[in-house]
Protein 1
Amino acid sequence: MSDTIWFRTGEATVFSSEGQGTDAMPEILIGSVKGPAGNAFATLMGQTEGHTRMFAIRACNQQVRPATIIVPKVTIKSTAYVNLFGGPVQSAIADAVIDSVIAGVIPADKANDLCIIAMLWIAPECATNPEVDRKDLYRTNYEAMKLAISRAMSNSPSIEELIANRHKIVHECTTLKPASRSGSLVGTLCVPLNSKGTHSVPYQACLHDCQTRSGEW
């Protein structure tokens, strides 16, 4: 049986320190450069306005292996956002990749045969906050990227775990709970809607509130 790593996915969320909007939520794909992951990686080399892609580098002339491309989940609209994406976040992702190789999570002998696509979240309000904690932005993205890589390489969570948790775990931003054996769900979004039917509070507020409240606003 081939030991080629063709297509592994992983994700993780690490929350910010108190009072910061620096939550990290990488979603990643790891796979052989000779397969669909490699094809997707090469395709992403083309640039799209507002969604600039970059290699993960630790510093100038220090691109990491496996080759990693970072993709913003949010449309980039300012230089301040670019400076965060191409600064502490890029550095955190790069460090997490090489540290995953050092730790043996990613086999060193496959470092040149694999590639990683990382879709990254930076809250838009971070770019407008001159006091944003760049060190915490690094911390959350570093920790989350290492966890996402570990999950991808171990195919975690397993299908058995997902089935077992189907009626025990719900999305952090909902109050949906199993209502019956049929699996139907009842409840409401914890993020209230305004008169236009859109969220009336920032997504970040939802993430933080869901950790500390019972789910009702």
Note: The domain at 8-153 is CATH 3.30.230.60 (Ribosomal Protein S5; domain 2).
Protein 2
Amino acid sequence: MMIAPGLLLMLGAAVAQPVYPLASAPRAVPLVCSHRGRLNAGDMENSVSVIRHTFAAGILMVEFDLVDSKDGHTFLLHDPTLDRTTNGTGVPANYSDEVLSKVMQLDPTTRKPVEPISTFRELVTFAQGSGLALMVDLKKVAPSEAVAELKAKGVLAHAVLLTFDDATSEAAFQADPDVLVSVLVRSDEEVDRVVAEAAGHPLALYVPQSGAEELFHHARLTGKTIITDAMGDLDGRAEKDGGEAYKVYLKTHPADILVTDHAEMLKAALSGR
């Protein structure tokens, strides 16, 4: 589906404004975040063209993954190797920008080449013009590198950095005093420690889908943004019951941002929540 750039800009101006600031909590209705930028699970992942389509369908936030090239520039890719989603092989960090620019992303169904793998700069440039919110899974990319790209396009306030270990969290906090950092928490004690260590820095708490109801409610008491995910079990149950599982889950697991492989279904379910 091709969407005219002008229409995308109008869509961004019309519907994306209420998304910011991302640190706002609690939200009356959780923000739908598309896992790997896809509108539906069968779509190509980590692709700027697919992300444009997802945004045009009314999904205001996308999650995506970063890898570095041998030259130190950043591309969108989930896996540590090129093998599963592209016609290339091996580790991206072993290849120059010139080589990676010729690697083609594959259609998940036909396995035919569709387009060159996307760059982080392409996505940030689109976010600058559209108002799209960005959930950045850093993988092994330095937080300071991602922050520099976001700041260069003036979209730092549009983004949250995902971190899943203490070293990356600390580096993310040090990267910029204004960047929103998501930290994984699995217990009330971790919630309290992370909030104390953040010391006023913009913070989101990533509570795993499997977290107990009590953990979600304890995180809510902090006043911080709560992120959780639906991939796997919750998405699977929602697929079977037309999205009702999302509404049932959110009644007892309060969240401000919900990441899903079924963004279109989740959006429809929450619209009637």
Note: Residues 5-15 form the longest helix (11 residues).
